[in-house]
């Protein structure tokens, strides 16, 4: 039997939103990437439909928002079913409604246009990880496929095959409660926004195309162990018990059940194997946080892995992916567990809901929760320094660059680091950063509106490709050169990277 053999810098397993986002980021960084997915094509199910402010900023930074043609924006979100205004300062406040089918199509086209190699109908059967590379064996439509790469990233969902094959620890709790949901055509029922009835929780929202999404939970009913998706009849029966309405005459387009399981991979990086998206963390998809968390994992990892795989940075840079995103994932899981208590609890949750309702009236509480859910408050440790911008995302500002006015997102379109100087006194820093010119773009600018806001008093910023501020003057006690070396590697590229190729993968990598 003929075996199809491929080589790549990185093999990504899973072509959902996180895997496709990662593939595009890797290509922006110059890494060769093969994506394996067992499905025949992109999802046809609407699934997650919420993009939060931080994700919109990321898509803007890659020039992808124009293709979405101004998706509907809602400022009103929720915390455990309690209304929450998500408005915060930034370019894309609130939450934006984009069906997952459209998100996958957008990211798939982008990654393919950058040169990612997508192999569908390829089911992973074996994974072998060595000290210098990995080998993945998959069953393809015409026979077995063997892919050798420097690194493997699992983006294959909460039931990750890669996680199972590698024995990665996935501690946490199984689901105890669940929501049944379905997209149904041909029914006419009232819209319900987290309506709590004596027997349970009911949610219904009719889309512009006439399809209604229903979700229902019966108080006190435990989650079932399921081998597959529930039957539509089960959803109809639960809906009638809770609401008294009959939706059985409708046509189900998609039926699904999701529980309040809460698990997280112990280490996001295990040698040459890394985990992102739902393969790294399992949580109830409340408020679209799961989708957004996975996309943000991919953007944090992509530029780092490309730099390491192409020999421009030491492999230790990948440890920062675990350090940064594991902590963010844990925080999201904790807030979702709290929301699940509020959302799915019966009479026993009444006092907790009343207290949270009072707290949400406080502006400081609202801003705190809105920042956490939207992802705009994420701040990573970036070395010594106390400036409030250090580690956070580059704040939204209109910047005059030469004769043009640009946003901070536009400066990041190439997927490179940016040394942004905002004061003439910092101009000499461009020469200091010149040895990193293949990885960091120098930009001299000023605030176009004359109002600096969060940039008040800032002379210069070093911004990573994911939009997080790695160095500030004044504010950082480390030197610019130290920060550049920390995040972008040695000041000169390795010979293989300078020639635009990686050394060949030797069979000795795999013990042959």
TrEMBL record:
InterPro entries: FAD-bd (IPR002938), FAD/NAD-bd_sf (IPR036188), RIFMO-like (IPR050641). It comes from the Bacteria. Keywords: FAD, Flavoprotein, Monooxygenase, Oxidoreductase. GO terms for molecular function: monooxygenase activity. Residues 8-335 form the FAD-binding domain. Its cofactor is FAD. This is FAD-dependent monooxygenase. It comes from Streptomyces atriruber.
